[in-house]
Input
Amino acid sequence: MEGSHIGRRLQGAVSGTIDGDRVRLRSSLPHEGTQLAYRFDGRVQGQTIEGEVDLGEYGTVRWTARHGLLGVGLNAIRFIFFQLRREALMSRRAVLLVAAMFLCVDSASAQLFQWTPEQLKKYTVKNPYDRFPDGRPKVPDEMLKRLKGLIAEEVQAALPSQEFPNQFESRDGWRVLQPDKKMVGRVLTVQFMPARGDIAEVDEADAKARGTTSARNQTAIDMLQPGDVVVADVFGADWNFVGNKLAHYIQTTTGNGMIVDGGVYWLDRIAETGMQVYYKNSFPTQGMRVMVTGINIPVRIGKTLVMPGDVVLADREGMWFIPPHKVQEVVESGEMSKARDDWSLMMLGTGKYTSREIYGPLTPALQKQRDDYVFEKTGRRPSPPRGR
Output
């Protein structure tokens, strides 16, 4: 039974507590005329809980559960799948007993629009990487690290195309809290619109019927994972997405910053932490009323369309939003561009050549030197120049 997946979804009662990265869940179910109670102790790692359950005469079973909304409240935990690992010989009956106990509480704060994991997969079908339980593409950390070594101009060499003509948003019109700091991460999107009472009433009624609350900024914030960058489309409104306390939560949860087409306040306190923030404005009070209309849906940031799971590279020039299936191509092309530029700078610094000899058509001998240098730095040899 090692690694067997339990696919059935059963409803049941669950209660528990969260203390730091520890979670304790208690559940019970009818079994052979009596009510059996079990305690599941585990450790939270991102959107995975791992732990063990003591089955008495059946021994101890290791288990893994993936959840969707831990942090919104235990009543809103959504277990994507439950996995048992047998460390000693166990009866099939014991495995089925534990499988029958686990449940799937499909509860989430209401908002007007939210793509399901299946919809996210449909619109990011070219994604070559794993996914988060919410369906977002999970570009590997190693790829993010390599991308962070590049700048906007080096991405320019690969991304703009007929298919993706609008993935760059200039820094013009934006304020940047840490002008000298680069930011790279996976995007989680949240969309706001001006508040409207009749729409809000329906939203709140739906939420109440589901035993939850209407979505707010914290609904999206509590879904963030390490390496994420929250991208908030607040349509440039005079409304603050967060202040210093929620900014601190975002920073400690993701190790990253945020992009807000709207307001952020308590800026001096946020700046002291070194957190990177791209934002449009700031007000000492909240300003106009807005409402959440979407989480993990496409949003517009300036002239770009941003998808959940895109990778953002934000620097002095502006923000690139890179589709997951283009990230490796962008990284490899950018690394080669950087190596070529490094070689040119190195040669210009020797004082042996004129600018036209290095920054222009190269002689065959210099071309070979540069190609060898690029190969040494990247492990890839440039394509021969056209016409040769």
Residues 330-378 form one domain. The radius of gyration is 25 Å.
